[in-house]
Design goal:
With about 220 residues, the protein is α+β, with helices and mostly antiparallel strands. It has nine helices and five strands; from the N terminus they run αααααααβββββαα. This is Pre-mRNA-splicing factor ATP-dependent RNA helicase DEAH3.
Length: about 220
């Protein structure tokens, strides 16, 4: 049931449980559903070239920046082979290969938005106590020591949940709360949200968006 729920939230299934057009395309990629969705929609954020590389690297064993920069040729070659395969599948479905100019202020923003479009179900919020809480599941987690962030952002998405003596989330990047309500409002539905700090923050963000829509309507 959990797998069906994930596919439904990703837009891969219709109300009857059949594959949607998006779902059919996603099923062609040899990736997990979240990564497939991220790749398919990346053209909308003008960063499919970058997401291709990210998907290829994540599909192989975690290179952890190629074992602290000594670089593993086998891992890079495997990722390159995966990337070429993904490019061919994208071409078959006429998915545009594009990229934002590296010097643009939107370069990293677009990449993170595209990633969030696939991984909005794997979000954690930084609590006032200093630890992270996964959204909806309310699991206490910590950033894995291998993460490359130089600070603790309020919101992060993660690729992997690691259970050891402590709960860790690995391969993470930061996102903005505003993006959550813009990209996945169907998932961040407060009617079915457990009470937590994240909910209170999201309530404020939804009110802010509603106010902005009203002001825009009045200007017209």
């Amino acid at each position: 049931m959990r797998a069906l729920e994930v596919l439904n939230y990703l837009g891969a299934l219709d109300d009857e449980g059949n594959l949607t057009k998006l779902g059919e395309i996603m099923s062609e990629f040899p990736l997990d559903p979240q990564m497939s969705k991220m790749l398919v929609v990346s053209q909308e954020f003008n960063c499919s070239n970058e997401i291709l590389s990210i998907s290829a690297m994540l599909s192989d064993e975690d290179p952890s920046w190629c074992y602290e920069n000594f670089v593993n040729q086998r891992a890079l070659k495997a990722a390159d082979n995966v990337r070429q395969q993904l490019v061919q599948i994208m071409a078959r479905f006429n998915l545009k290969q594009c990229g934002t100019d590296f010097n643009s202020r939107d370069y990293y923003i677009n990449i993170r938005k595209a990633m969030l479009a696939g991984y909005f179900m794997q979000v954690a919020h930084l609590e006032r106590t200093g630890h992270y809480l996964t959204v909806k599941d309310n699991q206490v987690v910590h950033l894995h020591p291998s993460n490359c962030l130089d600070h603790k952002p309020e919101w992060v998405i993660y690729n992997e949940f690691v259970l050891t003596s402590r709960n860790f989330i690995r391969t993470v990047t930061d996102v903005l709360g505003e993006w959550l309500v813009d990209i996945a409002p169907h998932y961040f539905d407060l009617a079915n949200f457990p009470p937590c700090e994240a909910r209170r923050v999201l309530e404020k963000l939804y009110k802010k968006r509603e106010k902005e829509r009203e002001e825009s309507k009045n200007r017209k």
